[in-house]
Each structure stands twice: as structure tokens, then as C-alpha cells.
Amino acid sequence: MTTNDKLAYHDPVFLDGDAGRPLRILAEYLQPLEAFRQAGVHDTVVFFGSARLTEDGPHGRYYREARELAARLTRWSLEHRPAGKQLAVCSGGGGSIMEAANRGAIEAGGRSIGLNISLPHEQHPNTYCSPGLQFEFHYFFTRKLWFAHLAKAIVAFPGGFGTLDEVFEILTLSQTGKLERPIKVLLYGRDYWTQVVSFETLVRFGTIAPKDLELFCVVDSLEEALVALEAVFATAPSVTDLSFAKSVCVKQRR
What we know:
Order of helices and strands: HHEHEHEEHEHEHHEH
Number of helices: 9
Strand order of the largest sheet: 4-3-2-1-5-6-7
Distance between the termini: 57 Å
Largest sheet: 7 strands, parallel
Structural class: alpha/beta
Shape: globular
Strand content: 5-15%
């Protein structure tokens, strides 16, 4: 009979094995939780968007406008919100639109969060995140939890499968009433979003309700986005307790 003289939580073979998976999942929840608590992060504006669009490419306007929007939101927060209640810009921590958002926030003197996911291609951490607020995730679902838990608003720039997945995840949580507080979703880029998704068709087929169209708005300029976001910031409550990510318990109807 062999013995293992290492404490279980110091044993990398155990932690990296199948039996340690629940602990790894929990760690991807608790590590950001503690970091956000220590940094005093309570409210975020989350930017979604493609990891493929380049600043000097044919759709470079979206990179430039994501960068400028993040900067202007950050300056607005510094001017209008009290110390300790500043908004933090959050992205998936990778390149392109995500980099633009993090970059704009840092350049404006604010805090910038990156929730990066380990992928075999495209997704590599950018260098525009605040110290201690760049995270690396293995599990998509723990990463998604942190996108939703602190967000007052989501701004979705043109993107592919990942962006669509994140947007519809948030819309579903809002539609079903599982979020403890509402999250306003802005779809940035009218030409892109009206071609990619026909929400009116979903209404016409009865797969969503007409009122579900109120869960998001489509904007096409920095001014439109800022007007919509400032209205949200003026009314939406802040997260005050970071002990656990909460969702609403919907009672079963009899």
C-alpha cells in the first residue's frame, strides 16, 4: 500500500485529474470573487465582440468606436460617480474588440477587467487590463457567470459564434427573470445586427413575445450608446454583496 504525504490541495496530480475537477470549477469562481472584493469592483460594463476584427481592417470603425466608447464611459464614471463606486470596463480579455474596450478604459484612467478563456487559437490575453484584474478561465460557464453577475449593461459589437452565444445567454437570463437585477443589452452596429438576427421574425413566429424586444436596443453611434447607457447607470442598483452570485428563485406555479 502506498501513501501520499502531500496535502490534497498541494497535490498537482490530484488537482489536475478527473477527481479534482469540482475543485477546479470552484476555484474559477472563488479566485475572481476574492479579487473583485479586494479591488472593490461592484459594477461593470461588459463589451462583447469579435476577436478577428482589426483596427486597420475593413471594419476597423468598430475597434476604434469600442475603444472610444470605453474611454468615454470611464471618464463619465470618474466625473459623475463617487469614489469607490466607479464603473469598470470588462471584456473577454482577448484581442480585437475586447482589446479595444480594455485599452480605452485604461487610457482614460479607469479600471479594466479581462476574463480570458483558454482556446487553441485566436483568444490570447491582451495587455490592457488592470493589475490583478486579468483572469484566465478553462470553463466557459464560470467565465459567463462573472460576465453576468456584475454587469449593469452589455455592449455587443459585431462578432461570431462566441459573441452570439454570450448575447443570447444574457437575453435568456433576462427574459426568464433569473437575474436579480436587469442588464441592458446594446447591440452596436445596426447594419450588422439587423442582417444577422431578425428579432421581428421571432416575434412573428411567436417564439418570443413583443415585449422581449425591450430587453435590448440597437445603436449605431457613440452618442446613441452613451445616451442609453447613462440612463441605465442612473437607475440600476449596484451590486453590494459579492459573497455569492445570485439568481432569482422562480417559484413553481400551481
